[in-house]
Amino acid sequence: MRIDLSGKIAIVTGATGELGRVMARSLAQCGADVAVHYMQNAQKAKELVEELQATGVRSVAVQADVTNQDSISQMAKTVQAELGDPDIVIANAVIQIHPWSSVLEEDPSDYESQFQSCVMQSVYLAKSFIPGMVRKGGGRYIAINTECAMEAAANSSAYVAGKRGLDGIVRTLAREVGKHQITVNQIAPGWTVSEQYYDAPEDHDAGYRATVPLARRGTDQEIANVVAFMASDLASFITGAYIPVCGGRIMPAI
């Protein structure tokens, strides 16, 4: 048994980011053609497309503002013209907030940006890509959430609010499109070891690791592995799920 995405078409939003590019590579390694979405980093998108094409799959770079419906609609037209209707949509892009603040001190614009990039991105992606999945008789919609949504730690309210809103949208979407054999799921990483942390001091995350039952941080590849599985036919009867990939740091209850 192996993950085989041959003949499938995927789009990854935020594909030039730390986790996004590993997800794109993993989907391509499983045989999927991949549309690489970017917001500003056209050069990195070009390099990633060339890397994916070298593995033998088709790939194209597409630019869009994920908080704008017209921009996503135009991106969808480009993907459809270049590759076809996607079977797999990975909603990974998000607007980062730095630094995080308390509810009393957080700028209201941070809540608005999180709502737009978490909730409205998925609304716009669904409107643009779900009809193609319906025509094809099935598909996979995977939203990247976070362990923070369940943890609700102090000073994370804007980020948590956006990701909690995302949870509501995609769970509802799962109920609405299931009859078309389209699954809709969420993957919730913890604080992940990605490229920016490869050379970090060994003890820089000791406090966090102490809160993880597996006593370590997950890697970008481990997140991408779950994405690939959920995108495959092996996960054909899983929908509406929120799947933590955080070493047990959060454990949804039944």
Q: Provide the CATH architecture.
A: 3-Layer(aba) Sandwich
- State the shape: globular
**H and E order:** EHEHEHEHEHHEHHE
Measured on Cα atoms, how large is the radius of gyration? 17 Å
Q: Strand tally, please?
A: 7
Q: Tell me the helix content.
A: 40-55%
Q: What is the oligomer described by this structure?
A: single chain
Domain tally: 1
The number of helical elements comes to: 8
Taking the sheet with the most strands, its summary is: 7 strands, parallel
Per the CATH scheme, the topology name is Rossmann fold
Helix/strand/pairing class, anyone? alpha/beta
The strand line-up of the biggest sheet is 3-2-1-4-5-6-7
Q: Please tell me the overall pLDDT.
A: 96
Low-confidence stretches: none
Distance between the termini: 30 Å
Organism: Alicyclobacillus fodiniaquatilis
Family: Belongs to the short-chain dehydrogenases/reductases (SDR) family.
Keywords: Oxidoreductase
Enzyme class: oxidoreductase
